[in-house]
């Protein structure tokens, strides 16, 4: 059995719908599509936008501020179970996490916090990272883990166009990158790097100064699998040709 999984930070679901998201979704050939930064309360969406025909849809919208954060999953076949948010109450309410349980793995769609609005928010981001990893490691005793989404951190200098200029910027701070080191050391595999170890591969570009056209970007969106699934990964890719957001989609294909 093969499963094709896609992830995309859409930077506003209602905006992306107007730019052809539904056509892209239906043509994707995916079994699961997870989106981040929906900026939408599912209850306020039209029925067809909220639950497109042919898909099972699951929404986790921000409760602390409307039009902020948020995640959603669209599935061709309903998972065994669905859980919203992390168990740690300190990191609930912003709609950042959906977990889908499948027969062979737990699948996380996560929009990790941005740490760029002062030290308090940076500490929130780092705490969220730790709470997620603790939860994932607990679930991993049961079955392997797949996690995708916007991690809001470029891991290595190769993962952004201008590393030297951004060493002091959240998203490339040593303390943020150190957590990704720990995550990898705990046995999680960056699937894209299994197939492409080259530079100039990015998933986010600033809207300013024509950054996307010049490919001055950051790779901050990822698919990770726990080590037990390494041999099940058949392909992993980034699709910068798909426009509509300041991020592009990325994907992985697994076989069991």
UniProtKB/TrEMBL annotation:
Q: What Pfam families does the entry give?
A: Exo_endo_phos
Active-site residues are 111, 150, 247
At which residues is there a site annotated Transition state stabilizer?
A: 152
UniProt cross-references to PROSITE patterns, sorted A to Z: AP_NUCLEASE_F1_1 (PS00726), AP_NUCLEASE_F1_4 (PS51435)
Q: Its domain of life?
A: Bacteria
Report the co-factor binding details. Answer: Probably binds two magnesium or manganese ions per subunit.
- Identification of the protein by name: Exodeoxyribonuclease-3
Q: Native species of this protein?
A: Desulfobaculum xiamenense
């Amino acid at each position: 059995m093969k499963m094709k999984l896609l992830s995309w930070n859409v930077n506003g679901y209602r905006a992306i719908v107007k730019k052809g998201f539904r056509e892209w979704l239906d043509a994707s050939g995916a079994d699961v599509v997870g989106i981040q930064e929906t900026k939408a309360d599912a209850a306020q969406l039209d029925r067809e936008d909220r639950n497109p025909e042919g898909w099972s849809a699951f929404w986790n919208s921000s409760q602390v501020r409307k039009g902020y954060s948020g995640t959603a999953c669209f599935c061709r076949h309903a998972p065994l179970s669905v859980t919203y948010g992390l168990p740690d109450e300190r990191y609930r309410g912003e709609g950042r996490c959906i977990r889908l349980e499948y027969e062979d793995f737990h699948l996380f769609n996560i929009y990790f916090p941005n740490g760029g609005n002062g030290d308090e928010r940076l500490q929130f981001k780092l705490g969220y990272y730790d709470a997620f990893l603790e939860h994932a490691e607990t679930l991993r005793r049961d079955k392997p883990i797949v996690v995708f989404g916007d991690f809001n951190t470029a891991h290595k200098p190769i993962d952004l166009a201008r590393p030297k200029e951004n060493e002091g910027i959240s998203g490339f701070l040593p303390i943020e990158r150190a957590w990704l080191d720990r995550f990898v050391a705990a046995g999680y595999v960056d699937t894209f790097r299994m197939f492409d170890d080259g530079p100039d591969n990015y998933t986010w570009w600033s809207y300013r100064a024509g950054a996307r056209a010049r490919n001055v970007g950051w790779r901050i969106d990822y698919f990770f699998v726990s080590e037990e699934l390494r041999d099940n990964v058949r392909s992993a890719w980034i699709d910068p040709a798909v426009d509509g957001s300041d991020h592009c989609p990325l994907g992985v294909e697994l076989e069991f």
